[in-house]
Write a structure and sequence with these properties.
Elements (H helix, E strand, L loop, with lengths): L1 H6 L4 H49 L4 H14 L10 E5 L9 E10 L4 H7 L7 E10 L3 E9 L15 H19 L10 E8 L3 E2 L33 E5 L2 E5 L13 H7 L1 E9 L2 E8 L5 E8 L2 E8 L6 E2 L52 H6 L30 E5 L3 H12 L9 H12 L16 E9 L56 H21 L3 E7 L6 H13 L2 E7 L2 E7 L1 E4 L4 H13 L6
Parallel strand pairs: 4-5, 4-15, 15-16, 16-19
Antiparallel strand pairs: 1-2, 2-3, 5-14, 6-13, 7-8, 9-12, 10-11, 17-18
C-alpha cells in the first residue's frame, strides 16, 4: 500500500493526506501534552505530600502560622524537579486543632505551557495559551506513629487456627510482620521526620518478661521495698543466729552466722544469687595417727593411720532471674504511674515462685523444686526460709519457666524501634519470629506493658513525650482466649499449703493485702467479683474488671487501643465474655462509622479467624495509615 502511494501521480492521495494530517497531528500534539501535564501534576502532588508531612512536623515542633506557611512553600519548591514554580498559586490551610483529626491542607495551582497545542491551535485560528491544573494534599497533624504489639503467647496459640492448616502462632507471626512492613513502607514518604513509625513488641502469657538485663533498673524493686516483695516469705522460720529482720523499710541479715554479710539487704534478687546447687565433689584427705581399737574399759588397744578427710563441694547457680515481673498492687496495675522509690508500690517486683511442699499425701504440688529440709506440715515446709540458703543436692539448674521462674514463659519485651531503618525492621521481625506459645492468659498485664512501651516515661522511655502533639501512641492487643488464673486442683495439683491458686503474676490468691481481707487480684474490683471466691471463673471476672479499668485509664490518657479476638465465638458464654471485654476496651475510629449504626463511630475491634487474620491486620494497617496522608 505504501509503495503504491509513492508511485501514484494523481492528486487524490495528496488531497486525502492533506485533509487527514490536521487531526493526526492534533491528536499527536494532544497525546504529548497530555502525557507531560500528567507527569507534572504527579510531580506536583508528590511535592505537596512531602511538603505537607514536613510542615506538619514543623507545626508539632512549635512553628507559628507564618513560619509554617513559608516552610511549606520552600519545601514544595525544593521538591518539584525541574519545574518553574514562579507562577504557581500556593495555599496553605493550617489545622484548627492539634489533637487527633486536625487537618493541614496544602493546595497548588500550577500553569502548564503546552509544547504543541499552541501551534496546532494557531493552524485552526484558535489561541491556546497556558493550561492550569490543581493538586491538593491533606495531612493529619498526627504524622508520627508509635505502636506496641501486645500478642498472646499462651499455650492455646499452639492450636491450629480455624479455616487454616497452620498454627495460630504462625498465622499471627505472618500477619504481624505484614502489618509492620506495610507501615514501614508507607513511612518511606516521611523521610524528613525523625523516627516516623516505631514498633515495640509485648509477648504475654501468664506474665510479661521485661528482660533480665533490667535487673538493676531504677524502676525495679532492687531493695525489696514494695509491699508485695516479701509476701510469700516467712522470715520467722530463720534460726536465731541467722535471722532476716525488717529495718528502715527493707529486710536485712542479722546474726553471727551470716559472717561478713551481716547487715546486707535481702531481696528476691539476692536470694536467687544465694541459691546454689552442688555441681561436684572431691575427697580431701587428712591422715592422722590415732587409736583404731579400744578395750572394753576404755583404754586404747591399738593405734594406726586413719584418713580423717572430708568431701569438698563445688557449687553452681541454680537459677537466675529470667525477667518476669509481678503485677503491681492496685491501682498501679491499672495505670502508667512512673515508678518511684518514695511510693514503693509503684516499683516492679521480680517474680520469685516459692518452692512448694515436698509432701505428696494429697498429690504433687504445682511447683516443688527444692528440698524443704524440715519435718513440718505442708504450709510450714513451703514457708521454711532456711532452705534457700542451703545448697541443693540437685545437679542441674532450673530451666526456662521452672523453679523460681515458674509462670515466666515468654520472650522479653522489645522496646520501640524505628522500622524505617533496616536494623529496626530486622529487630522487630526477629522478635516476632522468636515468639513461642506456653502458659496461661493475662491480657491486662500484657496491655499494661503495651502502654508502658509506648509511654514517654520509665520503665520504657523510647517513646516521644506523652504531651507531644503530632504523635499517635497505639496499642494493638490480640488474644485467642479469656483471662485465666488457675486453682491448683483445676490443673491436677494438690493444694496442701492452701495457696488457693498456682503462682503467677498476682502471686498466690490466698495472700491477703495489708489493710484488706482479700487478695490483690480482687483489689479495686466491683460488686460483680466475689472477694472471697477462690475459683477460676471468679479469677477471670476480677481480671476482666482490672482490664476494663486499665483500658479506660489508657484511653483517657490519649492512647488508641485496637483489640483483636482470634477464633472466639459468641455462641460460647466464656468466649462471649472475652469478646465483650475486648470490644469494650477498644477505642473508637476517627475515620469510620459503625456500619450497623452510622450515627456512631466504629469500634477499633476485629473478630478474626485463623483463615482471615491476615486480612484483619490489613484493615488495622489501613486504619493506621489514615492517621497521616488522607487526601
Amino acid at each position: 500500500m505504501f509503495r503504491k502511494f509513492l508511485r501514484d501521480i494523481r492528486g487524490d492521495y495528496m488531497i486525502a493526506t492533506a485533509i487527514a494530517i490536521v487531526p493526526i497531528m492534533g491528536g499527536l500534539a494532544l497525546a504529548i501534552d497530555y502525557a507531560e501535564i500528567t507527569r507534572q501534576r504527579t510531580a506536583t502532588l508528590n511535592a505537596l505530600d512531602a511538603a505537607g508531612i514536613a510542615t506538619a512536623r514543623r507545626i508539632v515542633e512549635g512553628a507559628d502560622e507564618k513560619e509554617a506557611k513559608q516552610y511549606a512553600l520552600a519545601f514544595f519548591k525544593a521538591n518539584v524537579p525541574g519545574a518553574d514554580t514562579s507562577k504557581t498559586k500556593f495555599n496553605v490551610i493550617l489545622p484548627t486543632s492539634k489533637q487527633g483529626g486536625g487537618l493541614l491542607t496544602i493546595e497548588a495551582e500550577h500553569p502548564y505551557e503546552p509544547y504543541f497545542l499552541s501551534a496546532f491551535g494557531s493552524l485552526l485560528g484558535a489561541e491556546i495559551g497556558e493550561i492550569n491544573f490543581a493538586a491538593k494534599t491533606q495531612i493529619r497533624l498526627k504524622n508520627t506513629l508509635e505502636v506496641a504489639l501486645v500478642l498472646d503467647n499462651s499455650g492455646s496459640m499452639d492450636y491450629n487456627g480455624s479455616g487454616s492448616g497452620k498454627k495460630r502462632i504462625s498465622l499471627l507471626k505472618d500477619a504481624a510482620k505484614q502489618l509492620v512492613k506495610k507501615l514501614a513502607d508507607e513511612a518511606e514518604q516521611m523521610k524528613q521526620v525523625d523516627k516516623p513509625v516505631q514498633f515495640g513488641l509485648v509477648p504475654f502469657a501468664a506474665s510479661v518478661n521485661v528482660g533480665s538485663g533490667n535487673a538493676g533498673a531504677s524502676w525495679m524493686d532492687t531493695e525489696g521495698r514494695s509491699p508485695i516483695h516479701h509476701e510469700n516469705f516467712d522470715w520467722s522460720t530463720m534460726p536465731n543466729d541467722k535471722k532476716v529482720v525488717p529495718a528502715g523499710g527493707v529486710y536485712v541479715k542479722s546474726g553471727d552466722a551470716w559472717n561478713d554479710t551481716e547487715g546486707a539487704i535481702v531481696t528476691r534478687f539476692s536470694m536467687l544469687d544465694e541459691m546454689k546447687r552442688i555441681t561436684g565433689q572431691t575427697w580431701e584427705s587428712n591422715w592422722e595417727y590415732t587409736c583404731t581399737k579400744y578395750n572394753w574399759w576404755g583404754n586404747c588397744r591399738s593405734y594406726g593411720w586413719v584418713d580423717q578427710g572430708e568431701y569438698k563441694y563445688t557449687y553452681g547457680s541454680y537459677a537466675s532471674w529470667q525477667g518476669c515481673v509481678e503485677a503491681r498492687p492496685y491501682p498501679y496495675n491499672t495505670n502508667d504511674a512512673t515508678p518511684n522509690k518514695s511510693t514503693p508500690a509503684t516499683l516492679f517486683v521480680p517474680m520469685f515462685a516459692p518452692d512448694e511442699t515436698d509432701l505428696t499425701s494429697g498429690g504433687r504440688a504445682s511447683n516443688s523444686y527444692w528440698s524443704d529440709g524440715t519435718s513440718g506440715g505442708s504450709a510450714y515446709r513451703q514457708g521454711f526460709m532456711p532452705k534457700y540458703f542451703t545448697p541443693s543436692s540437685t545437679s542441674s539448674s532450673a530451666g526456662n519457666g521452672e523453679g523460681p521462674n515458674y509462670s515466666c514463659t515468654t520472650k522479653p519485651i522489645t522496646p520501640l524501634v524505628d522500622v524505617t531503618t533496616t536494623v529496626g525492621l530486622n529487630k522487630i521481625n526477629d522478635a516476632i519470629d522468636n515468639m513461642s506459645p506456653n502458659g496461661g492468659t493475662n491480657v491486662p498485664e500484657g496491655l499494661a506493658w503495651g502502654w508502658r512501651v509506648v509511654s514517654g516515661a520509665a520503665p520504657f522511655s523510647e517513646g516521644r513525650p506523652d504531651t507531644e502533639n503530632g504523635n499517635d501512641k497505639v496499642v494493638i492487643v490480640l488474644t485467642d482466649g479469656e483471662n485465666t488464673y488457675y486453682t491448683p486442683g483445676s490443673l491436677g495439683h494438690s493444694d496442701d499449703a492452701d495457696n488457693k491458686s498456682i503462682y503467677s503474676a498476682y502471686g498466690y490468691t490466698a495472700k491477703s493485702q495489708p489493710g484488706a481481707s482479700f487478695t490483690r487480684l480482687f483489689m479495686g474490683t466491683d460488686t460483680g467479683v466475689n472477694k472471697s471466691g477462690y475459683y477460676n471463673d471468679n479469677y477471670t471476672a476480677a481480671m476482666n474488671d482490672h482490664m476494663q479499668q486499665l483500658c479506660d485509664n489508657a484511653k483517657t490518657k490519649g492512647l488508641i487501643l485496637m483489640t483483636v479476638s482470634l477464633d472466639l465465638s459468641e455462641s460460647k458464654s466464656s468466649e462471649k465474655k472475652a469478646i465483650q471485654a475486648l470490644k469494650a476496651c477498644a477505642s473508637e475510629s476517627r475515620f469510620r462509622k459503625d456500619p450497623d449504626n452510622p450515627s456512631k463511630a466504629a469500634k477499633l475491634y476485629w473478630n478474626a479467624t485463623g483463615g482471615n487474620l491476615s486480612e484483619k491486620f490489613e484493615e488495622i494497617a489501613d486504619e493506621l495509615s489514615n492517621l497521616r496522608i488522607v487526601g
